[in-house]
Every structure is written in structure tokens, then in C-alpha cells.
Task: inverse folding
């Protein structure tokens, strides 16, 4: 572990805004940027209850960052990190790395324990109500660990597992695999049901308040499954899909699909789409005021209303491939591949009161309904 470094952030001097006819002016400001690494990074930030932001980087670092952009401490893993961190109730930070180890880090930056697997760990962990930590590995297994780092159980699939799991209100664990199957496991690790798709599944599911599970497959479909595993509907958008859906709590589903950000109704009807000049993988986030934060086009963070009309945009330096996180005060944190950025706006709001308003469900990224 490295010691804390001096505060290193840049305050933007330019306010970027979009003013629309018939709408109140709204504006957003890039408040600070913090350089992470000289590699494109798609790990998304997690926010602890005390406001600390935890960000992993592709050069193997986990950084604890203040809401003002200062570094509290840095932990260094031997190899790359693509997994997004999750924060437990006691403040423990969990993530996987490409040295084949799963890590538990104390809130002061000290190593708590590691758990070895047989291959890379790119899956982001989910944390159950009892503290169980779940994640997948490139070794084709899905793991459940106790809070002390001991193995609770493991479940074998037919392909690598980079999909990040989601945990329902009843404790059911949902995830996908490169074997083209979507799994529902009981809390004890036994399979409840399996659903076959036409391609590998790399995205993370979203769970509605009524128990409906939404996920995408690289077969180009957005699926809606009932809690018993039966299909409610599917929407084909064309091409591979790796973005994870999010829910606004008002019947809207948002995700990226190829060169577009799209909105879908709970009945599976496409409501609108916003084209982009580049492929989009980043998962949106929804605020309590109804604004949806999107990666589009390419280097811009765009805020749109439920109707798809833009409110403001902020241009960053590099490709936005991670997913935004929304703090309690409405500040948006996102990486542009190489920098962690803090963005404020004149109409900012906390996360939407929804079962799944952002990637991994909530600011702490526990991947669990009701947390």
C-alpha cells in the first residue's frame, strides 16, 4: 500500500451548458479532475456513506478520493483492475484484479484479506444482506465468500464470467456467463433456473421493484424475465450489447445499445434513441429530478430529461467508458478513461428513488435491491 499523496486536482474555468427554448437554463461545471493512469479505464467509482469515492485504475491502483478530488490513500495490486469496487456496510472495499485475486481493503487502505481464483476477475462484486460477497471469474466459476474471506460456495458455468451479479429482495443472485446462459441461484448456491440467450452475457442485470429482471446479451437483445425465469418480453436493438440497464422508478428503462442511448418502456417498447458517432458501452445513471446522465457523444457527459431532450453537457478529455455515480448532494462522478471527474450542475439531485437507478444499483455499488 502506498501512503497518501498530496491533493492533485484541476478546477475547470469554463462552464459548459445547453440552453433549450421554453426551458429554464441549466448548466453543469467540471469542478475537478484527478489523473488516474495513462490507460483507458472502465472501472466505475463507488461512493461510501462518508462521501469517500473509491476508484480503481487499469494500472492496478485503488484510490480513496475525497469529494473535493484529493487522494486519501492508494492501494496497489500487482496487475490490472477492471472490476468496479463495492463498499460494504462496515466500510470494507471489495474488488477483483487480474492477478487472479479478490481483495478486501479496510477503510484506512490496509489489506484485510485476499481470495485466489483460477483466472482474471473482471466481474464487479455484489454484497448480500448478510454480508456475503458474490462475483464471477474468468476461470468459469461464480464465487460466494463470507465476510472473513473464506469460501462459502462456488458454482461452475460453461464459460468465463465477467457479468457483475445482482441480488434480489429475496436473496436470489442473478448473473450471466459467456456460455450464453443467464443464471438465478439461491443464496446457498443451488441453481433455481437458467435462461438461454443467443450470445455471451457480459452486462450486469437490473431488478425492478416487482422482481422483474432486465439484462442484455451480445445477441443484441434486451430481455425482461419474471422472477420464475419465464420471459416477459425481449427487444432487439441490433448488434452486440454490453451496457447494463437502469431504471427510473417511473416505468423507464435506459441503456446504451451500439451507437445509441435508448429509452424503453416497462412493456418493452422503445421510446426514443440518441445516436452517437461511436460505440457506447457505459451504463447511464438516473437522478431524482428525472435527469438521465449518458456517455454521448464519446467524450461528453450528457444530461437529458425523460423525454430524451438534452439539458446540459460537459466535455471531458477522453473516452467515457465507465458509468457515472451520483452522490447524495447530486454531484456526478465519472471517469473519462484516464481521469476521475467531479461534475456539479445548477439542477443537480441525488439518485432516483428507484430499485436500480445506476450501475450496481446504488452509490456504494452493492448490486442489491433495497440497499
Result:
Amino acid at each position: 500500500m502506498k501512503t497518501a499523496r498530496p491533493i492533485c486536482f484541476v478546477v475547470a474555468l469554463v462552464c459548459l451548458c445547453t440552453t433549450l427554448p421554453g426551458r429554464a437554463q441549466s448548466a453543469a461545471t467540471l469542478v475537478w479532475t484527478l489523473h488516474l493512469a495513462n490507460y483507458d479505464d472502465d472501472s466505475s467509482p463507488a461512493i461510501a456513506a462518508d462521501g469517500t469515492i473509491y476508484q480503481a485504475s487499469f494500472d492496478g491502483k485503488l484510490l480513496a478520493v475525497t469529494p473535493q478530488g484529493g487522494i486519501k490513500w492508494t492501494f496497489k495490486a500487482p496487475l490490472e483492475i477492471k472490476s468496479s469496487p463495492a463498499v460494504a456496510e462496515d466500510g470494507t472495499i471489495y474488488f477483483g484484479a487480474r492477478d487472479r485475486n479478490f481483495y478486501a481493503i479496510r477503510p484506512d487502505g490496509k489489506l484485510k484479506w485476499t481470495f485466489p481464483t483460477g483466472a482474471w476477475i473482471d466481474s464487479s462484486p455484489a454484497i448480500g444482506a448478510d454480508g456475503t460477497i458474490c462475483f464471477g471469474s474468468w476461470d468459469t466459476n461464480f464465487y460466494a465468500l463470507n465476510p472473513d474471506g473464506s469460501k462459502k460456495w462456488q458454482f461452475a458455468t460453461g464459460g468465463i464470467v465477467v457479468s457483475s451479479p445482482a441480488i434480489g429482495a429475496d436473496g436470489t443472485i442473478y448473473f450471466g456467463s459467456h456460455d450464453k446462459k443467464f443464471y438465478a441461484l439461491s443464496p446457498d448456491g443451488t441453481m433455481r433456473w437458467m435462461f438461454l440467450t443467443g450470445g455471451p452475457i457480459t452486462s450486469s442485470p437490473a431488478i425492478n421493484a416487482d422482481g422483474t429482471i432486465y439484462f442484455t446479451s451480445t445477441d443484441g437483445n434486451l430481455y425482461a424475465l419474471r422472477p420464475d425465469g419465464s420471459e416477459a418480453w425481449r427487444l432487439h436493438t441490433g448488434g452486440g450489447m454490453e451496457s447494463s440497464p437502469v431504471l427510473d422508478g417511473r416505468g423507464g428503462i435506459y441503456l446504451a445499445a451500439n451507437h445509441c442511448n435508448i429509452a424503453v418502456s416497462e412493456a418493452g417498447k422503445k421510446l426514443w434513441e440518441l445516436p452517437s458517432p461511436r460505440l457506447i458501452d457505459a451504463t447511464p445513471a438516473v437522478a431524482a429530478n428525472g435527469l438521465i446522465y449518458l456517455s454521448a457523444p464519446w467524450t461528453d457527459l450528457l444530461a437529458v430529461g425523460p423525454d430524451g431532450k438534452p439539458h446540459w453537457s460537459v466535455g471531458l478529455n477522453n473516452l467515457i467508458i465507465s458509468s457515472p455515480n451520483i452522490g447524495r448532494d447530486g454531484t456526478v462522478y465519472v471517469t473519462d478513461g484516464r481521469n476521475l471527474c467531479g461534475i456539479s450542475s445548477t439542477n443537480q439531485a441525488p439518485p432516483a428513488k428507484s430499485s436500480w437507478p445506476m450501475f450496481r444499483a446504488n452509490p456504494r455499488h452493492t448490486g442489491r435491491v433495497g440497499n
The domain at 27-345 is CATH 2.130.10.10 (Methylamine Dehydrogenase; Chain H). Residues 250 and 354 are 8 Å apart (CA to CA).
